[in-house]
Amino acid sequence: MKSRQRTKRKPLDLALAAVTYIAAGLTVAILLLLIGYVVIQGVPNLKLSMFSPRYTSENVSAFPAIVTTVELTLLSLIIAVPLGVCTAIYLTEYARRGNRVVGLIRITAETLSGIPSIVYGLFGMLFFVTALGWGFSLIAGALTLAIMILPLIMRTTEEALLSVPDSYREGSFGLGAGRLRTVFRIVLPAAVPGILSGVILAIGRIVGETAALIYTAGTAAEMPTLTGSARTLAVHMYTLSSEGLHTGEAYATAVILLVLVVGINALAAFSAKKLTRA
Amino acid sequence: MIKFDIQNLKLYYGDYQALKGIDLAIEEREITAFIGPSGCGKSTLLKSLNRMNDLVEGCRVVGKVLLDGEDIYGALDVTELRRRVGMVFQKPNPFPMSVYDNIAFGPRTHGITQKHKLDEIVETTLKNAAIWDELKDRLKKSAIALSGGQQQRLCIARALAVQPEVLLMDEPTSALDPISTGKIEELILDLKRRYSIVIVTHNMQQATRISDKTAFFLLGEVVEFDETENLFSAPRDKRTEDYITGRFG
After folding, report:
1. Strand order in the sheet with B59-67
2. Which of A73, A261, B137, B207 has the smallest count of CB within 10 Å of its CB?
3. Under DSSP, is residue A169 helix (H, G, I), strand (E, B) or coil?
4. What is the value of ipTM here, to two decimals?
5. Number of folded domains in chain B?
6. Position B231 in a domain
7. pLDDT at A276 (0 to 100)
């Protein structure tokens, strides 16, 4: 039966099927090519000296940059996630439909998510670095990136909350639970997987960001302090390759970055699993 | 004893009037069935008995609903009202958590936190809902993994866990197969000994099988309210007769 169906396929069916196969194959091929290229170029250049605790122009250590990347990511998420999630909760669970403020927040968020990161960088420089007088610093960079990922966190959380069936809310209210308990005990836990996918996207943007950081956190290759300048791996890579002296090390840094991203995402997935269990 | 005394209840969704002055008395420890075509207001009336309509924007209620003589739209606290008047919905809606946590959600909401007390409540309510034997080894498993019929009985148990006096059921078997439906009907008949039950149903056989009294609704009004036997064998109103003999709806 199955084989007969296959021979009877219409030409259009066949063409559409072919297009989807080709598209999927192409996507995988490009990704593999990219990862393969970076790994082949990078791995031979990985040296133990790249992990020495202090950066010098001889060892071009990536270690301070690794620490900076992790700290900056955590810091930005700690600022942006609670704020974004709470805003989304307000928009979906508390605000009345057709509320003017809601419309305003939505339009603002949509506009903000379309702005190139360099604009955030300039804002961060003018406001945190200059106006507040913080200078190039990890905290200025983290706040700038937090603002940058806020719309993303908000929108994905909103989508996740809206996709929680109303029957859960009804069930909870029907047992006499108030809105607070319903939101935090029933709706939010059910939305965690969706919120997490937003967080992972946000991590990707933080880890890959350079433009907004060069103007706010600066490019010092030092171990990070909250008020001092520091560079993330992406900025480190940018600096190495633009200086032109350490192209091989730049590729090696890319490999480290790749591994780090996989690690951070796995950690995020793991903690979300723990969160939903609790 | 009259449990719910509904007096001239009118309900509006914005400009639309969904209930046009309902007068109805619901007896204690009886099963009262609401029947009628879609959009006749039977579910709306059910939801107004534990104020689930509060959640609908633009919903306005005029008139009185007395629970043991106390106006539920007056001084009575909504949380306390919903504890005393539980609800089971059309589609089984267990929370995405364990069987145990589903049952314990209500008691925890009303301030019970000691583990041994919760353990006891979970066991007795599951026994009352005749589902203990099926679930006693799966208390820590997710409730979402249960079959549709088990989910619905779990939802009934969840409603019973806060020791309500009345159970409102909104077409509780319409999403279930005949065997699960049979089990739930048995359970409802058993629960009648301790609870007052109001059930909305599209299934007239179901109404005749389990209910003591039946109210027939049409266009936001109660056309006829009587002992189920009388209503189905000798309807006084022509419209009731047309409906139960299948001439419309």
Report:
1. B16-27, B2-13, B59-67, B70-71
2. B137
3. helix
4. 0.90
5. 1
6. yes
7. 67
Interface test with A, best of B81, B97, B121 (most A CBs within 10 A): B97
DSSP 8-state secondary structure symbol assigned to residue A96: P
Task: State the residue for tokens 């080894």.
Answer: B137
The answer to whether the CB atoms of A175 and B86 lie below 8 A apart is yes
Three-class SS string for B26-71? EECCCEEEEECCCCCCHHHHHHHCCCHHHHCCCEEEEEEEEECCEE
Closest in B89, B97, B159 to A167, CB measured: B89
Q: Where are the domains of chain A?
A: 2-45, 50-277
The percentage of residues in chain A with a pLDDT greater than 90, rounded to a whole number, is 62
Q: Does some domain include residue B64? A: no
Beta pairing, strands B31-35 & B196-200: parallel
The tokens for B171 are: 């077409």
Residue B193 sits in a domain of what CATH number?
3.40.50.300
Q: Which class for B135: exposed (0-12), middle (13-18), buried (19 or more C-beta within 10 A)?
A: buried
Q: Would B140 be classed as within a structural domain?
A: yes
User: Does B96 map to a domain?
Assistant: yes
Among B79, B91, B155, the residue with its CB nearest the CB of A176 is B79
Residues belonging to chain B with any Cβ–Cβ distance to chain A shorter than 8 Å: 50, 52, 55, 57, 78-83, 86-87, 89, 91, 93-97, 105-106, 109-110, 155, 158-159, 162
**What's the pTM?**
0.84
Interface test with A, best of B51, B79, B163 (most A CBs within 10 A): B79
| Min Cα separation B231/chain A (Å) | 31
CATH number for the domain formed by residue range(s) A50-277: 1.10.3720.10
By residue range, what is the domain housing residue B154?
A: 30-56+78-244
Residue A6, pLDDT score:
55
Report CB contact under 8 Å: B95, A97: no
Minimal Cα distance from A179: which residue of B?
B55
Residues A252-261: what's their mean pLDDT? 91
